[in-house]
């Protein structure tokens, strides 16, 4: 049985389909978003299933009458690994491919289990003597699990993306000035992604926004803010944007912005900010 490998976007994206459906799965949430060609929502639904995630997704598919349609799904940051490599630009296409494959196979040996991967050679690089390569690796078991869930729900898995790539894709599509950094704060973890033409890095913090909204634990909140500030200073980040579910809570967002030098808020017009990742996936689906 042929499994869908991770597929990275090819830039620049071009106009294609009339609508797009995206599925964002985290540890305890399902987000399903449909966008029309004009980027207005067909539907946007978010649930936190307590038991059977597959049945919960199937119920959503049936409710919105989208059975049999293609979907772009997304692995959460903790379910994959992204690497950034550079190679001499003097290499032939064949030698470059062999070098990339060799590097990735070394990464796979460290995992000690079967995995899928995909990579993308950047179209341009600041140093003409080098080429940049983005690679994403995920366990075979994880990818097969997503495929089974999607098929059980009655959808067809078109593409499997990765959260970090989806965040970068948003910045590139909306032409954020380079270099840019995006802090995506979800309910149970946060990702700080930095993209420049010559490097990509990301950091994951396990601060739990959902728990904070319930218990107002200031110690963990301040620790989270302190960690982000340290990363901003250490990495000399100057253009930092904030996105994700946190934007729905003005008091929490304001506290972060009082302490962290935020350049801008990446809110979504007509769509809840918790759908930042699915929105980026849908844009990819519309433009590929």
UniProtKB/TrEMBL annotation:
<dbReference type="InterPro" id="IPR005883">
    <property type="entry name" value="PilM"/>
</dbReference>
<dbReference type="InterPro" id="IPR050696">
    <property type="entry name" value="FtsA/MreB"/>
</dbReference>
<dbReference type="Pfam" id="PF11104">
    <property type="entry name" value="PilM_2"/>
</dbReference>
<protein>
    <submittedName>
        <fullName>Pilus assembly protein PilM</fullName>
    </submittedName>
</protein>
